[in-house]
C-alpha cells in the first residue's frame, strides 16, 4: 500500500495515524520531495476522474488566479496543473497494486475499506 500526499497536510496526518493505529503497513510518497509521474497521474485520472483529483477546496486551488482556475476544464489541463502544483492533488490518495482504493480521509470509509 502506498499513501500519496504531503507530510505537513493535516488530512494526510490523520489518515496515517489511522493506518498506524490499525497496524496497517504502508509506504509514504511525499509529492513535495518525490514528485509524481505523468503516467501515475494519467492512471489515477482513468480510475477516479480528473475532477476528483483536483482539490478545489484547498489552499493551492484558492490561491490560483481565477483565469488559471477557469482553464482547468479537461483532463489535459488538469494534468499540467497537478504536475506543476502537486499540492492541488486531493490527498491522501491510497493505492494498492496500482489501484486507487481511497481518495481523501474519511474514518467511516477507511473502516469499510481496510477492515
Structure characterization notes:
The radius of gyration is 14 Å and the shape is globular. It has one domain (2-114): 3-Layer(aba) Sandwich (Glutaredoxin). A four-stranded mixed β-sheet has the order 2-1-3-4, with helices on both faces. It is built from eight helices and four strands. The longest helix is centred in the N-terminal third of the chain and has 12 residues, at 10-21. 52% of the residues lie in helices and 15% in strands. The chain is an alpha+beta fold. The model has no long low-confidence stretch (mean pLDDT 96).
Counted by DSSP, the helix tally is: 8
Q: What is the global morphology? A: globular
Quote the distance from N terminus to C terminus: 14 Å
Structural class: alpha+beta
Number of domains: 1
Number of strands: 4
Helix content: 40-55%
Report the portion of residues in β strands.
5-15%
Estimate the mean pLDDT confidence.
Answer: 96
What can be said about the biggest beta sheet?
4 strands, mixed
Briefly, what is this?
This protein has eight helices and four strands; from the N terminus they run E-H-E-H-H-H-H-H-H-E-E-H.
Main attributes?
four-stranded mixed β-sheet; alpha+beta; globular
Q: What's the arrangement of secondary structure elements?
A:
Blueprint (H helix, E strand, L loop, with lengths): L1 E4 L4 H12 L5 E4 H4 L3 H11 L1 H4 L5 H5 L2 H6 L3 H10 L8 E4 L2 E5 L3 H8 L1
Parallel strand pairs: 1-2
Antiparallel strand pairs: 1-3, 3-4
Helix pairs in contact: 3-7
Amino acid at each position: 500500500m502506498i499513501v500519496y500526499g504531503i507530510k505537513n497536510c493535516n488530512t494526510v496526518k490523520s489518515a496515517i495515524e489511522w493506518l498506524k493505529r490499525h497496524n496497517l503497513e504502508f509506504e509514504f510518497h511525499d509529492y513535495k520531495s518525490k514528485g509524481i509521474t505523468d503516467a501515475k497521474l494519467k492512471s489515477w485520472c482513468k480510475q477516479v476522474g480528473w475532477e476528483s483529483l483536483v482539490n478545489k477546496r484547498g489552499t493551492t486551488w484558492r490561491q490560483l488566479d481565477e483565469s488559471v482556475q477557469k482553464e482547468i476544464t479537461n483532463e489535459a489541463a488538469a494534468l499540467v496543473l497537478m504536475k506543476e502544483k502537486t499540492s492541488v492533488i486531493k490527498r491522501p490518495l491510497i493505492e494498492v497494486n496500482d489501484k486507487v482504493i481511497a481518495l481523501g480521509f474519511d474514518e467511516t470509509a477507511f473502516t469499510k475499506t481496510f477492515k
